[in-house]
Each structure stands twice: as structure tokens, then as C-alpha cells.
Amino acid sequence: MADQAEAPAGERPLVGDQGSAGSRTTVSAGASAADTDLTRLIASRIRDIPDYPQPGVVFKDITPLLADGEAFNSVINALATLHGPVDKVAGIEARGFILAAPVASRLGAGFIPIRKKGKLPGATYAQDYQLEYGIATIEVLTDAFDPADRVLVIDDVLATGGTARATADLVHRAGAEVAGIAVLLELSFLNGRAKLADLPVSALLTI
Questions:
Q1: pLDDT digits (tens, 9 = 90+) for 83-99
Q2: Do the domain assignments include residue 117?
Q3: pLDDT in tens, 42-60
Q4: Total domain count for the chain?
Q5: Residue 11's pLDDT band (cuts 50, 70, 90)
């Protein structure tokens, strides 16, 4: 899951209950009817799991959306249209893989996994990012990108922005260009876009 609060427990963590801010859905004033329908569909397929994995945390569970073939297909189609033609699609471990791989296939682009430290074979670039109680590291293979590749970075959730920023930095270090960052869900009350002000960022649903 994306850095939903960037705590050290589990994979990439979770979101504490933010009251009404955590349940408000934002729809752009200029959104088309199709965009609005997609936003509502996504919102209806994401459920809150209170007090998971610990008291005071509300977990945003996307598994109902993934289990709905029509909804999942609509999400993949939408993500594939957000940032123009690209050469590679980078997915952030682990739920980012679920979205990024089919998007890459839809675009005829290569898929690049961004993994936790020690999970990739061969030479890698490593990038640290800050967690609430420590530092985590993600990696990409040094030969993952060709020079001047346009790369779309995909994850499920944009929260505090730490993993997305670290991924963008890895792409740049490897000599490629970040065409954009696309996510299924943005938790705007955590202000993750502040870490990504130099990059195009798109979210299918913002709360």
C-alpha cells in the first residue's frame, strides 16, 4: 500500500482517523460526467477498516475495488490516460504493482518494479525516505531505464508523499524523466503533494 502515514509497521503504512477530512470526496468543478461517475465508483469500492492494524488507525482498503472486474478495468483505463505516452511504468511495492503492471500493458510500455531494500537482484540505486519512527529504503535496478525514458510512476495511495518522492528521485538518478505520478487515491489532508511540487501529480479520487 502507499505511504498512508509512513509508519514503520508493515509495508507502507496507514492513516490515522482524520475526522471529516478523512471522508470528504473532492470532485473537480470542471470534471466531466464520466470523471464524476468514475470518482463515485472508486469511492463506493474503498472501505474504511477502523482500528487496523492498531487502535486509532483507519485503514483504506482497496480490495473490494480490485475484486470488481468492471471497476478495476475502469481504473486501469483512467490511469493509462493521465500523463501521455511513456516508455516505462514504475510501480511502487506492493499495491502499486497491482495497478502499474496492467497500465504498462495497456500503454505498450515496460513495467519497472520499485522494491524494498534487498529484494532486487544485481546492482541497484537505493533511496532512503523518512518514516514516522525511522528511515526506509527503496531500490531500482541500475539498468531499469534507458537514457531519456519517460516514466509514469504509479501507486495506490498518495499520503505524506515520502515513497513517491523517493521513487521520483530514483528515476532521475537512473537518467530517466518522470512524466508524472498517478495514484488511485490521494489523502489530501496529509499534504503529500508538497513533496512533489516539481512534478505532475494526478489522483483519480481525492479525500
A1: 989 999 999 999 999 99
A2: yes
A3: 999 999 999 998 898 888 9
A4: 1
A5: very low
Ordered strands of the 47-50 beta sheet: 15-16, 57-61, 47-50
| Stated pTM of the model | 0.85
**41 lies in which domain range?**
15-206
Give the 3-state secondary structure of the chain: CCCCCCCCCCCCCCEECCHHHHCCCECCCCCCHHHHHHHHHHHHCCEEEECCCCCCEEEEECHHHHHCHHHHHHHHHHHHCCCCCCCEEEEECCHHHHHHHHHHHHHCCEEEEEEECCCCCCCEEEEEEEECCEEEEEEEECCCCCCCCEEEEEEEEECCCHHHHHHHHHHHHCCCEEEEEEEEEECHHHCHHHHHCCCCEEEEEEC
Using the structure block, give the residue that is written with the C-alpha cell 521513487: 167
Q: Determine contact, residues 129/135, Cβ cutoff 8 Å.
A: yes
In a domain, 2, yes or no: no
Average of pLDDT values for 125-140?
90
Q: How far apart are CA 36 and CA 101, in angstroms?
A: 25
Instruction: Determine the pLDDT at residue 132.
Output: 66
Tell me: the pLDDT tens digits for 158-185?
A: 999 999 999 999 999 999 999 999 999 9
Distance CA 17, CA 37 (A): 26
179 lies in a domain?
A: yes
Q: What CATH number is given to the structural domain containing 138?
A: 3.40.50.2020
Residues with catalytic annotation? 95, 132
